Every structure is written in C-alpha cells, then in structure tokens.
Amino acid sequence: MRVMFQRLVLALCIIAAASCAFADEVVVLSAAEMKATFNDVSIKYAVMTGRTVRFIYATAGEIHDNAASGKPFDLAVVPPIALGALLKQGLVQEGAPIPLGVLRIGMAVRQGVEPPSIDTVDDFKSALRDAGSIGIPDPNTGATAGMFLDKLFDKLGLATAVSGKLKLFRDGPSAVGAAARGEVSLALAQMNDIVQASGVTLVGKIPEEVQQRSTYSISLAAHPLNPDGAHALVDYLTAAAQMDEYAKNGFEPPRR
Fold first, then answer.
1. Which of these, 12, 114, 219, 256, is most buried using a 10 Å CB contact count?
2. Is residue 24 situated within a structural domain?
3. Count of structural domains within the chain
4. What are the tens digits of pLDDT across the range 97-117?
5. pTM of the full structure
6. Residue 221 has what pLDDT?
C-alpha cells in the first residue's frame, strides 16, 4: 500500500512539473522567413529565462488559417497582409505591432551561371523573358513573395510570356534550392531565402520601381495562453542585440 502511495505521489509530481512547464511555454506562429533568424532563440532564451519557446513555422496564409481554426498561440510574426487579416478577425490584439525587419525580393541563379542584368525594369523584364524556367513560391500557399510576383507578372504584361515557364514551390527556400540544383534557370524569392542558401549566386534585388517591401512584425494574440511570457519574449526579440542577427539573415532595419 505504501509503495502504491509513493508511486501515486511521484506520478502527481511529474504531472505537476509537466503542467508548470507547459504553462510557461510561449507559442509563436511565425512566418517561415524568420526560421533561420529564430534558429537559436529557443535555446538561448530558455537558458536566460527558464521559459520554453515553441515556434510553429508556416507561410503567412497558413498562419492565418491556423489562428482562425482556433490553434492556441501567444504571438504571431507575419508580414502586413497577413497581419491585417489577423487584426480584422480579432485574432491578434489591436495596437501598433512591433516591426522586426524588412524583406525585399531578389533573384538568384545557380552558382557558376552568368547572372543576367536586372538594374532596370526593362532589364528585369528581359531576364524573365529570356529565362528557360523560373522558380517562385506558390501563391496558392499564401507565400508572401509568390502572391506579389503573381500580380507583378500581370502588371508588367508578362503573365502570358512566363506562364509556360513558371515552376511553383511550397516556399522561397524550395524555389531557391531548385535554382541551386539547376532545376530552374532562376529563382525569385525574398532576400533572406537567397542569402541563407548555398549553391546560388545572388543576382540582386529586383528594381525598386517594382519592388515589394515586406515588414515582418510581432503581435500579441487576442487571447494569449501565457501573456507574461509573451511580453518578455517580445522584449527579447526586439532588443538591439537581436538586430545584427536579423541583418545577417537578409533583413533590413525596420522603421520604428
């Protein structure tokens, strides 16, 4: 009887410890573009604070769907269009979101391949017309760059010219990886996906006149599970010490 009682107490202690750990966990729905930047945050933050951070990475569209479906979370890190949708549905708190960094769209080719000129809009259009194949993130997944590029091709009068040579990938890293393997002639993706990749050459950012400037911001969930932990993590992620990490991964400083 005594042994059974001891086992019961031990089991209750384990459950209590697990509950405390879960209660101190901070859940972040984050755009996949932030993955490399946030790569070491979970470990460093846990060492500093004793709190656990769980990042759930997805495209901006998938983050909206996850939040709308009732998936519990504390923070969301998304670009403007996704943020607007979350705010409209009351899934994140009103008030100014805090910007972390800005991404622009660039072009990449396989390492060793002569890069085309994209200095001007006409140069950029010529590069797209001359390319044998073009890899971009699939706009149907809600990928930020993919949705923008889909509209840009139409705006530039290139929708018909590129339709037969477009290859769609789940996200930016997949499109850039295809360029590195020679599966597409060139890839268009956000800058972080290119600078973090191996086997490719950055041709450059697309011309400013047709450029997308996506500011990735962090917002508190409308009903966070761990509000204290969430606020503390926001302070950590927006500290000056983190800015170098964002820059290293292709982000430009935000306007604050």
1. 219
2. yes
3. 2
4. 999 999 999 999 999 999 999
5. 0.79
6. 97
Instruction: Give the tens place of pLDDT for each residue, 177-200.
Output: 999 999 999 999 999 999 999 999
Nearest to 104 by CA among 211, 195, 218: 211
Does 233 lie in the same domain as 188? no
Regarding whether 205 and 110 lie in a shared domain, the answer is: yes
Q: Which domain holds residue 93?
A: 2-102+215-248
Give the strand pairing for 98-103 and 214-220.
antiparallel
Q: Given this model, what pLDDT does residue 5 score?
A: 38
pLDDT at 168 over 70: yes
Average pLDDT score over residue span 127-154 = 95
